[in-house]
Amino acid sequence: MNDSSTSGELAGSLRALVSRLSPGDRLPSSRELIKEYRVGPATVARAIAALAAEGVVVTRPGSGTFAAQRGRLRDEAGGSDTDTDWQTVALTDRAVDTHLIAEPLGPPPVGTIAMDGGYVHPSLQPTRALSAALARAARRPGAWDRAPAGGLTALRTVFARIVGGSVAAEDVLVTAGGQSALSIAFRAIAGPGSPVLVESPTYPRALAAARAAGLRPVPVPLDADGLRPDMLADAFAMTGARLLYCQPTYQNPTGIVLAPERRRQILDVARASGAFVVEDDFARHLGHGGAVPRPLVADDRDGTVVHITSLTKPAAPSLRIGALVARGPVMERMRAVRLVDDFFVTRPLQEAALEVLSSPAWDRHVRSLGTALRERCSVLAAAVAQEIPGATVAGPPTGGLHLWVRLPSGVDDTVLTSAARQRGVAVSAGSRYFATEPPAAHVRLGFAATADHTELTEGARRLGAALAGLGPKEGWDT
User: Fold this and answer.
1) Which residue in 74, 209, 385, 461 has the most C-beta neighbors within 10 A?
2) 353 Cβ neighbours under 8 A, 6+ residues apart
3) Which of 256, 261, 233, 234 is nearest to 246 (CA)?
4) Are the C-beta atoms of residues 442 and 407 closer than 8 Å to each other?
5) SS3 per residue for 438-468
6) Nearest CA among 227, 339, 317 for reference residue 278
7) Residue 309 forms beta bridges with which residues?
8) The predicted structure's pLDDT at residue 88
């Protein structure tokens, strides 16, 4: 190729070169192309730009030009081909671990018994009260005006009263549910690359939120009394972490309640390490009729605890109202993060939440829900014992929405989960709840999302049949 060669001819030669490369392989530098093809810098630049526009290559300033695998997606609007494979290189490493926040097997077929969910069945939701509250809220003067960034003062006051202790309205930041609160807290407290201590097992979407914030989850073991203070102290010392995430009350997935004598110990260990404790109190309204322990933040004297609560689990999936409770500079940091994210939570929903919490019907709902959850938990635990020989139920819990079931030795939980789906019951594989390798195979079984007790019993029967149907090469180690 001589000096008069066009950029089109060079693009053709480079296109042929890329066809022999693997996605992500680096092309020769501009200097090497100029020398090899005997062209000028402008010709090389035009050829690379043309290939980048086609999606054949991806350019990364300061790094070079890379081959991008070609692929086609049908544009539903116009039927044209759209090539998005360039995004594979541009997005680089995964920031959000999608397998922790989405069901890996996809939506279940119609007729599947849902025992993998984290919300209560519509029959257990206070739908009439929610609808009436939203209607009244929408008619309030100023209901559609901008809400304060921290949340409505009256709603913050109610949350402060629920938490108890010396918590006041100014210590509360209203959020769009518990998951939003988690994301805000993680990003406000720790910088990218920092370790965060987590219970093992723990809530998968907390792991996803931590990793999306650039944090490195480090597991700390649980026993029947909850998080082990001795192991926690070792973990702080070894990692230098300045953040612990935990669920002291009706922990997800185990249902464990942190023992009373350990509550002060956990705070003392964190305080001595100069660390924050993010207390996820998602299940405060999900007790099964007994006394619910005070939240850690109610007895926190030093601003160690950042408390998260939410109305979504005991009410309905779309009541995306939660709160962060904290004292000191960390609250100002979280308020700043929330302003960057979305300014404020929609006011009509806050007004509706205030209506719900201020009504005597809310306390009645929480009591009746607790009774229903206790009955369902008992029914499912009995069904598991009868239908799944060799399985061991943790607890059973005195609150929450789930049973944590240890499977017989040698069973692969992900294989069993897939087999159960084929038999018409959806359950959650236990491996999703561990930050590192799980010590044993488990499944999490929900008892709140099914229609009635009959479905719970039938779901356990189908799960037992799926386990019995696994051959040595399918789900059992040999």
Assistant:
1) 209
2) 133, 155, 311, 319, 321
3) 256
4) yes
5) CCCCEEEEECCCCCCHHHHHHHHHHHHHHHH
6) 227
7) 323
8) 60
* pLDDT tens per residue across span 38-71: 888 888 988 998 888 887 888 876 678 888 865 5
Residue labelled with tokens 């939003």: 180
CA of residue 321 relative to chain centroid, distance = 16
DSSP per-residue letters across 1-26: --TT--HHHHHHHHHHHHHTSPTTPB
Q: For Cα atoms 355, 316, 357, give the angle at the middle one, nearest 5 degrees.
A: 25
Distances in whole angstroms, Cα of residue 200 to Cα of each of 190, 203, 259, 292, 376:
20, 9, 16, 22, 26
For the stretch 72-119, pLDDT in tens is 434 444 445 566 666 666 665 556 666 656 666 667 778 899 999 899
Report pLDDT for 50.
86
Q: How far is CA 438 from CA 176, 413, 441, 451, 467, in A?
A: 32, 11, 7, 31, 19
Q: Give the three-class secondary structure for 172.
A: strand
Those residues with Cβ within 8 angstroms of residue 375's Cβ, 6 or more apart along the chain or in another chain: 453
CA distance 370 to 286: 6
Contacts of 334 (CB under 8 A, 6+ apart): 173, 184, 185, 188, 306, 324, 326
With vertex at residue 15, the alpha carbon angle to CA 12 and CA 18, rounded to the nearest 5 degrees, is: 155
Strands 425-426 and 113-114: parallel
Q: What is the pLDDT of residues 184-220, one digit of tens each?
A: 999 999 999 999 999 999 999 999 999 999 999 999 9
Structure-block tokens of residue 192: 């990218």
Beta strands in 329-437 (DSSP E): 392-393, 402-406, 425-426, 428-429
Would you tell me how many other CB atoms lie within 10 Å of the CB of residue 274? 11
Exposed, middle or buried, 220 (CB in 10 Å: 0-12/13-18/19+)? buried
* 3-state secondary structure (DSSP) of residue 401: coil
H or E, element range at 344: none
Q: Give the model's pLDDT for residue 471.
A: 63
Torsion of CA 413, 417, 419, 421, to 10 degrees: 180
Q: Which two tokens stand for residue 214?
A: 């650039």
Percent of the chain with pLDDT over 70: 89
| Tokens 């950029």, residue located | 7
CA distance 430 to 61: 42
What the block records as the tokens of 179 is 């998951």
As beta bridge partners, residue 476 has 411
User: What pLDDT digit, counting tens, does each position of 363-383 carry?
Assistant: 999 999 999 999 999 999 999
Which amino acid is it at 391? A
